[in-house]
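Example (one chain per record):
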Amino acid sequence: MTAADGRIYAIGGASKHNRTVKTVEVYDIRADSWSRAPSLCIARRGPGVALGLDGRLYAIGGYGATRGGPLTADTVVTVETYDPATRRWEEIAPIQAPAYNEIGAATGSDGRSTRCRANLCDR
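Predicted structure:
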């Protein structure tokens, strides 16, 4: 996800041992280097990520499975927002239905977030 500050953010994911992580890394295009940002509140992989009109990043849903395999109770409904200016993550209101492996999420001019996966988009 490219943020308003021009940096690229890699949010969450899995370790080489298939453990879900809270890690956030930031790529600075000008410096051609990666650095660490503050970790997510909750470890997650496959979240939808959107850049809000407020300049914040939003990590939406995902899953926290640490053992691989089918996703059931490990799917999360939590949403976190990151403010690059304060370098802080915070949880906000959860989504109503679990979502994971999102292709993308976007914030429209009306301020509403849209999640898209495969050929399905919902608000």
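Caption: Residues 66-73, 118-123 have pLDDT under 50 and may be disordered.
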